[in-house]
Amino acid sequence: MIEFDKLSSFFSGYFQFKPRDKFIYLDFHLHTVAAEGATITPSVVSFLLEQPHLIAVTDHNDIRGAAAMCEIGMNNIPSIELVCEDGFELLVYFNSLQDLEAFYAKEVEKSKHRYRMARTDKGIDYYLDLLQERDCYLSIPHINGLAEKNYLKNMPQMKSVIKRVDAIETYNHALPKNRNVNAQIIRRFYQLEATFGSSAFIRHELLSFCRFLGQEERRHQRLLGSLYQRPSRVGLAQRRAGQ
């Protein structure tokens, strides 16, 4: 289910370990409770300290959790899950915490919707235009999710959005298997890269994803071996600059 071989070289620049040494917790869609005004859940921190890991805290329109993870020394890719005015969500990964903080302060914090604070007052096309000029990496989460998060049904501009991102999240642990399979089919059709993650808030959800991830890693040791040998990180803005 997890497409390790479709993970971008953008992420491999963060690896400080070899895949065959021990299990590695990889989670590129992880949430904290920072967005609700609380601190990082201690159980999440203790869980991550128990094994090598590479994570991306992607709180909804909030970076306090991501910043806290970086500041306490977690192997965290500075990230955010943008929730736009039109309901579209976008995972945005940056090369540095400074880049994430600058983007958030200028383009997210001041644009939060007056009444719907979980969203901004800007649409997805607005952010895609901005992010095209930044050194970052973009992935569409839960493209075939449940209810309003099923972008295939609810977003008429879906095709144009897909053509402007780097990846599609092809495994989200909170979704049924058939939803993830459908996301993989879409990724292959558009020849994009893949991300994957737990979409978790609490330790119980992390443990469930951890068990599944361990099974998948054992099945894909050879793919992981080639993945960890990739030396460079290339994001959407970098590729376009070279065109």
What does this protein look like?
The protein has 243 residues and is an alpha/beta fold. It has one domain: Alpha-Beta Barrel (TIM Barrel), CATH 3.20.20. Helix content is 38%, strand content 16%. It is built from eleven helices and seven strands. The strands form two sheets. The chain has a five-stranded mixed β-sheet with strand order 3-4-5-6-7. It has a two-stranded parallel sheet with strand order 1-2. β3 (79-83) and β4 (89-94) form a beta hairpin. The model is unreliable at 231-243 (pLDDT under 50).
In short:
The chain is an alpha/beta fold. Helices cover 38% and strands 16% of the residues. Residues 231-243 have low confidence and may be disordered.
Strand order of the largest sheet: 3-4-5-6-7
Number of domains: 1
| Helix and strand sequence | HEHEHEEHHEHHEHEHHH
Low-pLDDT stretches: 231-243
The name of the CATH topology is TIM Barrel
Largest beta sheet, briefly? 5 strands, mixed
Q: Percent range for helical residues?
A: 25-40%
Count of DSSP strands: 7
Q: What structural category do the secondary elements indicate?
A: alpha/beta
CATH superfamily: Metal-dependent hydrolases
CATH C-level: Alpha Beta
Beta-strand percentage range: 15-25%
**How many helices does DSSP assign?**
11
Euclidean distance between termini CA atoms: 33 Å
Q: Can you tell me the overall shape?
A: globular
Mean pLDDT across all residues, rounded? 83
CATH architecture: Alpha-Beta Barrel
- Please compute the radius of gyration using only Cα atoms: 17 Å
